[in-house]
Amino acid sequence: MSENESQLPGRNDDGAAVTSAASDRAKTGLAKIKEKFLPGVRITLLISLIFYIAMFVIGIIGVHNCPVNENIPLFLIATGGIGLFSKSVSFIREKLMPHFTIQFVESSLYTAETVFLIFGSYWVFKVYKPSFYEGSSRYCQKTVYMFAFIYLAVLYALLLAILLGFFCFLGCIFFVKRTESDNRDPEAQAHMQGGPQENKEHGATTEQN
Length: 209
Prior knowledge:
By secondary structure, this protein is mainly α. The chain has a domain at 21-160. Helix content is 85%, strand content 0%. The chain is built from five helices and no strands. The longest helix is centred in the last third of the chain and has 67 residues, at 142-208. The model has no long low-confidence stretch (mean pLDDT 76).
């Protein structure tokens, strides 16, 4: 009994060492993944910042240059400003996290961006196609309108592609499940058909006896 008790601490130490080693390997793997993808994330974030700055500036320039619908430059200003602020918050999240509730701020910004996206889509697509010649009653500066139009078109194309990919994924899963079910049905039917036949044969054998 004393020998078993003396062996238990050693086993516990070995288990703790194995667990610690596995945890260290997991942390090392996560650190390597972060180091590998962090440059790409930073580049994407930088590109997003440049894009939103351009959107904000173009919106300000076109404030009085789109009489067909003056809300279009407002859409660019609001979306560019919100996007710029949200990406800036994401960039400095680690520094603000101990002192500020970042999740609430980001959720509010994304909600506001979605609202402006809905209104902006209505404003932009409603006046398609405006005139790019000054003096026309349907005039809108070409840079302002085309920037907003292309932005919305690309965004909706990406959303559509994501939805199609998701439905294709669901369809593939359904097809695989259906195929597995069809492959199992003949075996089940054969087993069910074989059962009554065996019962009949057993009954006939019993009567003969």
